[in-house]
Amino acid sequence: MTDVIAPWSLVEHASLHSLNTFHVAANAARLLRVTDVAALPEVLATIVGSGPLLVLGSGSNVLLAGDPEGTVLTFDNNDVRILEHRADHAIVRAGAGANWHGLVMWSLAEGLSGLENLALIPGTVGAAPIQNIGAYGAQVGDFIQAVEAWDTREQLWVRLDQEACQFAYRDSVFKQEPDRYLITAVEFRLPLLHELRLGYAGISDELKAMGIELPVATDVANAVIAIRRRKLPDPDVLGNAGSFFKNPVLPVEQVDVLLQHYPALPVFPGNDESNRKISAAWMIEACGWKGQRDGDAGISPNHALVLVNHGSASGAELLAFARRVSASVLETFGVPIEPEPRLIGAQW
Ligand code: FAD
Ligand code: EPU
Fold first, then answer.
1. How high is the pLDDT of residue 4?
2. At 84, which helix (H) or strand (E)?
3. Ligand 1: centre distance to CA 50 (Å)
4. Ranges in the chain annotated CATH 3.90.78.10
5. Looking at residue 271, what is its pLDDT?
6. Rounded distance, CA 232 to CA 241, Å?
7. Distance from residue 60's CA to the centre of ligand 1 (Å)
8. Exposed e or buried b for every residue in 280-306, given b needs 16+ CB within 10 A?
9. Active site residue 340
10. Which end of the chain has fewer CB within 10 Å, C or N?
11. pTM value?
12. Residues of CATH 3.30.43.10 domain(s) within the chain?
């Protein structure tokens, strides 16, 4: 006998403690888990009029500064399969609820490359396009062929191709129009072979230390995993959401002026030739915040961009601490820094 899996379930008064990696206390009036996404329109019809809808993956990029209103929706569809094999690439389709790092390691084991620099990023496949997750010189948008979603505004299924997704640094059409698109699956175009990106600080050295001279994609993933484990706190041990602030993208002219005053400020390529990304971590550390705390809210001693919950800080306390950090960076460098995670129950 096979178990019949219900297409969806609804729980009232659900704790969100394990659904956010800051591990702050918060509750949802209704928590809706959808396994069979084909049932989504019909399920949504049953909750019409009961307030807004917030999709959560694993809550690794949200700060719950209060209880979300209405209904929290999560997707449990985690099927991953190859749709098509071509001479030099394959098309892979993954359900929104699939674990991101699991997909990366699965794709490498299938002989597909592209996602290796994005290993060990927490979260779900459905959330990856939202801020166009990026790390170690790669961004997921470059490998996305299409995103499947329910458009809550037009009330219809849509399939957005790569161009329609408007990917940029930590940005996309989904981030610009929060809650409009409920992403149910993502299609990736993954090369069989491609030029490995080893240029980002640390990867080549890590590979050398691992004794690898001619790396393949899996070696790069293992190097990235090792670097990340050293630098970033494990949210299961110390609550955090990765980088709390985005690196500011500024016009080249402004960056040149900053460099005259602060020649050590790390500068990275921007979205195009007219701008550059500067290191928010460096500015925060220069302002003396690294390792500081007030009660249980603080900045990681290992990485200045990571806001941490040392135990029982509330979302509001974490937010208040982050505002102090941002105000001092603005005062010292004249540069506003903005949160990367989505704030729930508060405005920046
Ligand atoms: P959530 O936090 O649950 O949601 C994030 C946003 O996406 C919310 O606005 C939510 O409403 C929306 N959303 C989620 N799922 C869907 C869906 N199916 N449809 C529509 N909207 C949806 N990010 C990087 O880019 N690079 C990194 O290197 C990186 N490192 C990290 C390291 C650590 C230790 C941590 C804790 C976080 C890190 N992050 C990084 C941030 C985070 O992992 C990513 O943003 C991830 O994609 C969030 O996935 P999630 O499922 O937890 O999304
Ligand atoms: N730095 C400091 N102090 C620190 C940490 C870093 O001065 O405490 C300086 C160093 O000079 C370092 C530079 O900042 O060379 C860059 O640091 P790092 O390589 O750690 O990258 P980042 O800019 O801090 C970004 C992403 C990360 C991603 C890494 C690796 C953003 C907001 N963050 O961090 O993404 O993993 O690059 O590519 O773009 C996330 O988004 O949650 C996240 C963790």
1. 74
2. strand 80-85
3. 25
4. 239-344
5. 86
6. 10
7. 5
8. bbbbbbbbebbebbeebbbbbeebbbb
9. yes
10. N
11. 0.97
12. 8-75
